[in-house]
Amino acid sequence: QVQLVESGGGLVQAGGSLRLSCAASGIIFSINAMGWYRQAPGKQRELVAVVTSGQTTNYADSVKGRFTISRDNAKNTVYLSMNSLKPEDTAVYYCNVEVQVFQSTAHYWGQGTQVTVAS
Predict the structure, then answer these.
(1) How far is 83 from 28, CA to CA, in rounded Å?
(2) Summary mean pLDDT of the chain
(3) Angle at 80 between CA 13 and CA 89, to 5 degrees
(4) Confidence at residue 102, expressed as pLDDT on a 0 to 100 scale
(5) What is the DSSP letter of 29?
(6) Burial class (CB in 10 A: 0-12, 13-18, 19+), 63
(7) What is the pLDDT of residues 39-81, one digit of tens each?
(8) How far is Cα 55 from Cα 45, in angstroms, rounded to an integer?
(9) How far is the C-alpha of 98 from the C-alpha of 52, rounded, in Å?
């Protein structure tokens, strides 16, 4: 019903920047929040940043001041601008959307995009 398509990953040198995009398509009635998760080798998937429908944002401590999440409600698209990238930011980044389904919620995941930061 809902598909998320991610783009923008790649290889960058430490200190560089990347911008990830995630576009939601399909039947979109009400999106509560859109966020970014990442999973590095040997680690569990962790929340990186989230933005609600009211554009309230929250960030993991490790990325505060370096990453910025933004949302274009008209386009059902969420972005993650990543600056001052560090090797420890290397991970597969996944977009996630939470949609409201009457009195319940549902989650959808993007396919993941690789971000590699070289030292």
Answers:
(1) 30
(2) 94
(3) 40
(4) 85
(5) S
(6) buried
(7) 999 999 999 999 998 889 999 999 999 999 999 988 999 999 9
(8) 23
(9) 9
The residue among 4, 30, 8, 31 whose CA lies nearest residue 82 is: 8
Tokens (6 digits) for 113: 């995009």
Alpha carbon distance 15, 23 (integer Å): 26
Q: Judge whether residue 28 has pLDDT over 80.
A: no
Cα 44–chain centre separation: 16
pLDDT given for residue 37 in this prediction: 98
User: Given the structure tokens 């998937």, which residue do they identify?
Assistant: 45
Residue 42 carries which side chain, given as an amino acid letter? G
In angstroms, the CA 64 to CA 113 distance is 21
Provide the residue type at 29 as one letter: F
pLDDT at residue 55, rounded to an integer: 82
- Residue indicated by tokens 């930011």: 89
